[in-house]
Amino acid sequence: MVALCGGVGGAKLAFGLSRLLGDRLMLIVNTGDDFEHLGLSISPDIDTVLYTLSGLANRELGWGRQDESWNFMTALEAIGGETWFRLGDRDLALHVERTRRLRAGESLTEIVADFAIRFGISAQILPMCDDPIRTIVATPEGRLAFQRYFVEQRCAPRVTGIAFEGRHEARPSEKVLAALEASDIRAVIVCPSNPFLSIDPILAVPGIRERMEKAAAPVIAVSPIIGGKAVKGPTSKIMAELDMPATSETILRHYDGLLDGLVIDRTDAAESRALPGSVHVTDTLMKTDEDRVRLAGEVLAFADRLDAKAMDGSR
Amino acid sequence: MVALCGGVGGAKLAFGLSRLLGDRLMLIVNTGDDFEHLGLSISPDIDTVLYTLSGLANRELGWGRQDESWNFMTALEAIGGETWFRLGDRDLALHVERTRRLRAGESLTEIVADFAIRFGISAQILPMCDDPIRTIVATPEGRLAFQRYFVEQRCAPRVTGIAFEGRHEARPSEKVLAALEASDIRAVIVCPSNPFLSIDPILAVPGIRERMEKAAAPVIAVSPIIGGKAVKGPTSKIMAELDMPATSETILRHYDGLLDGLVIDRTDAAESRALPGSVHVTDTLMKTDEDRVRLAGEVLAFADRLDAKAMDGSR
Questions:
Q1: pLDDT over 70 at B204, yes or no
Q2: What is the pTM of this model?
């Protein structure tokens, strides 16, 4: 089983999937948000997945670690360091150790695999790419690196376009390609992350989209839209700015032929009749761990139904 | 007024001197202990001086900052990072910001000057050199980088020799040379730091020893030996290993003609008669801030007496 995910929303479903699948789950995680800050290599979505799957995520903040302290940040501010991107004392360990190991020549894939073991995570967490691909947000005031847009400017600027710098030079990750090419693959799940900022960077990695199209299993997305809004983050704001109605139909169109099935929220059940292709309607809001596991189970069952249908059709 | 110092013991006298002299004090601080750890540039003696002079030093530990927390270290250990050199959460801010600025091309001298201002320190803290000079300890088991010897192995290996790697390639710091060449210099104080590990690296910087010999003011050392022992650290252990009696006379000989005067502890008053040159006997143990300021005042008065005598002699 392969799932694509970005940060918070996607990581919740990934948590549910990991509970059901253990080491049979391979997560391909967005690294378009990665950046260098204070001289440290920071991978926000990877870390959110590490913290969420290990149960260490900070649920109040929605990012970072639980039981966090901020003494580093306070001391940094006192000596005039940059504080717009907040790094907790415990969280900092991942950034310092990752940076050290990257400089020593290890790949992000190797480093994250070790971190996952240390965090007691059995799912495989695969960075979408070991080469840098950087999400750039175009705004009327100019181009912004992702974290400047997302954290420093709190998604305030109007988005006029999104680009993925470095995508053409990037070599795909062997492990990611192998995961998508596996003959025993059961499904490819696109988690309810931001399609533009979290999933599109993954699809921009050379070879990934093509392998998803050819995958020997159904590709299913869980729509991040509930009742015309995203649960969290700027998805619906960006859709408005890009002149797209904030509906699950838009999400389906956006993935442009890639999907075999779409999971949408009960709130939008009326939409399902107008949607082309297979749709599963359920509660997609994940408030508790039980919600996450239940939704993951429904997505897997939906995938199995689609797979059986496809095999019927091929007979 | 110029003073040479290393870490804890020297920094105590530097604190006293800074209270009396404010911005008229220039401190030349050992950077032979500096090293790269976890990808961060660490300057232990510089930081001890910053923390001591600003009143932020941790008096229980004898190193690092007061009111420190250790959440970074705990989290680092959990992901398999190296923990033999302990970095507190607040302390880490100096290392991360220093490393970032060094990589951006700033000199350690510039960075430390800014930090000192941020810490409210009026004395000038000058790294002995902006180029790397690294103290290496020779032992029967091989050569050890200073912090491996000092922190990881807790000074246990027997010292057979000490070297300062990079000294011949190092360019001296303009500010350090200018401080020693000043015509209005009142004294050059060698603080009661470890002569072998804290002061010798400073004297190994091209041009420093020569300028101290020519300085237009008396050079005075405060002996780190009290009753045959050093207050703290491995000074007397190293002296035994190098077959030197742990006495102030040995210290005087070690500096080999560089000193115009030596300050020794009352415990060793009997030694003073046998010592060549000018000696001032007083209480050199600094337990309180008052001790530090009192000793600093006595050192300054001793310097002035030596200066007057020298001027008498030259008439």
A1: yes
A2: 0.91
